[in-house]
Prior knowledge:
It is a single chain. The chain has 573 residues and is mostly helical. It has a single domain, classed as MetI-like fold. 78% of the residues lie in helices and 2% in strands. The chain has 22 helices and four strands. A two-stranded antiparallel ribbon has the order 1-2. It has a two-stranded antiparallel sheet with strand order 3-4. α14 runs antiparallel to α15 (397-412) and α20 runs parallel beside α21.
Amino acid sequence: xxxxxxxxxxxxxxxxxxxxxxxxxxxxxxxxxxxGLRVGLGSPEVIKGPEISLSPQVLPxxxxxxxxxxxxxxxxxxxxxxxxxxxxANYPQARKILLPLLDVLQSVPILSxxxxxxxxxxxxxxxxxxxxxxxxxxxxxxxxxxxxxxWYQSLTTIPRDLQEAATVFRFGAWQRFKTLxxxxxxxxxxxxxxxxxxxxxxxxxxxxxxTAGERDFRLAGLGAYLQEAANQGDTGAIFWGLGTLVLTIVxxxxxxxxxxxxxxxxxxxxxxxxxxxxxxxFFEAVRGSWLANSVVRLLRPxxxxxxxxxxxxxPWRDPEARAxxxxxxxxxxxxxxxxxxxxxxxxxxxxxxxxxxxxQWKLIxxxxxxxxxxxxxxxxxxxxxxxxxxxAIGTNRKLATWLQPVVQIAASVPAxxxxxxxxxxxxxxxxxxxxxxxxxxxxxxxxxxxxxxIAGASAIPQDLRYTAALLQLSRxxxxxxxxxxALMPYxxxxxxxxxxxxxxxxxxxxxxxxGGETLQIxxxxxxxxxxxxxxxxxxxxxxxxxxIIVVSTINRLVWRRLYQLAEEKYHLx
Length: 573
């Protein structure tokens, strides 16, 4: 039986008798059928264009719409991750361009280009379709970067003996992907997927409530429901909306993420069994379901055929010759196609930047420095508490069972909902708005580190833990010789995405409207927000480019070197 078939089976045992899992499967099928009928037939009676109803009866429909947008963005993110990360990891020539480009892309303030994307799409597609596509693109840009970095980190830290074995057995691209790369990266991809969904909820809310002047681009969904409830001061509707959001997150944890965590435990690199494996009631229900086994048996021929077709479509090729032959002409072709457009746009940008005075450039430099200090402070605070908690969750299954859904709920609650509370508390502190800005940036930073640390701790082989226990290492020795080296690749991945999140969060942390007043402090985020509000496009361009250049430089001088250190020294060999 080939590997794809084994992966597809998910460890399902052979059963002929009905199982309690069948009841769960039938219940979910009925629920999804009802939701489909509600979306297809019932929605026009409740929703009329951009008008948002606050009736609790529409919340299942709104939750379905929001999850659908999140799922579409996630699928798009995974496709981008596999293609982009694989090219960056396997093609040295492409890596020189793709990694710096990835640094630039993840440092671009996401909320600043939503109007551009939306107005561009509305000129091509019907308005409602354009708004839906724009929301999916916005969520995609919030989900994809940490997934791509995690996939790249996994590909570059695969143990050398496994890479050599794949070369000796002449695995083609598809065989290498299904038997080596995807299993090795499964744990970190699943935990980063949780983080992507948690971060995606924030930008989903922003996309669903977007308005531009007299143009109303709102979308029916949980975000629009919560905003409408807040605008009308309907406390009951706010609680109904937040309750639905929490229930949705818990349902996704129980039906998707916890089963995936339990399934991915088989891919941990270890020579002995773990003390306690992760469990999932839904995963056990699917494994024991006669209906699920029957579906797998029906689809097995299709899986075998697809596996054979992909193996023939992507046969073995010499890695060195492939890298030299393909990467070169692809890069030349892309460069030739993009050069005229880049030259024209660069010329137009230069004309706009020429309007910025020396004094303004000096203020931008000072603002960048101020924001950099806040980003460093937020990262230091985040690392101080996420490192011990992440290791505890990743190494203690009982603790993970209780804290995993709590962490997901906390990470998924939109940070904007907490801004008023944070401001009320922080403005009374000695630091004032500076302290509030750091706390707000922390809300957009800490979860990237936490989820990556949990993934790294979960991937530590059990035999290495037993060895550390047999050697009677002290707690500090265990951290210095086992835990920190094993976490190094994951820490770098979490830090680089957390850094980008903190820089993006500076736009809303350094320039806020509260109590009918506009509060701002010196920072590049405040300059971007103020330039946007004033319509000062030259200053907006100069500030945005300055942020991109600084973030990319930091990534190149700091995080990229740490990536290289992790690739060379911290392999599980």
